[in-house]
Write a structure and sequence with these properties.
Layout (H helix, E strand, L loop, with lengths): L1 H16 L4 H15 L10 H18 L5 H12 L14 H14 L4 H18 L1 H18 L1
Helix pairs in contact: 1-7, 2-3, 2-7, 3-6, 3-7, 4-6, 5-6, 6-7
Length: 151
């Protein structure tokens, strides 16, 4: 039932906004993230808004591909360098789900400036997808909604 609501909202948004394309929506979300986290902006994002915008942008980046995939690639390379998910990392057996939970804890318990919170959201998009299970379902749901806006 929720999927029908999400798809309906996404398709209605697409009709209202006109076709944006995934690259276009990635550009829109990046612009919002950059300008919304500036200290001198007329309206500055709260930490929660910045995390949400970063998470949305990260999911759209993956769909947009090309240059937009760089943050995803950097995050995956960092996870591989730390041997996350292999059981042989410098900190022992750390799985992607643990990293996802740490990112959520950081987002809500650390006093982050909006820009840092937005970057945390970007990283969350990749880690959530890589972690699988409910984390991937959350990232996928957000991604499906925003990619639906792009079409």
């Amino acid at each position: 039932m929720h999927d029908d609501i999400t798809l309906a909202a996404a398709s209605t948004g697409a009709e209202f906004l006109g076709g944006l394309g995934t690259g276009g929506l990635a550009t829109v979300l990046t612009t919002a993230l950059i300008l919304g986290t500036r200290d001198k902006s007329a309206h500055t994002f709260s930490k929660g808004q910045a995390v949400t915008c970063g998470l949305a942008a990260g999911t759209v980046y993956t769909a947009a591909g090309h240059t937009w995939g760089v943050p995803d690639d950097l995050t995956l390379n960092a996870l591989q360098a730390l041997h996350v998910g292999t059981g042989t990392g410098p900190l022992g057996d750390i799985q992607p789900g643990a990293v996802a939970l740490v990112l959520v804890i950081v987002a809500y318990l650390v006093k982050l400036k909006p820009r840092a919170a937005g970057v945390n959201g970007l990283v969350m998009a990749t880690v959530f997808t890589h972690a699988g299970g409910p984390w991937a379902m959350l990232a996928s749901g957000i991604g499906d909604f925003f990619v639906g806006l792009a079409s």
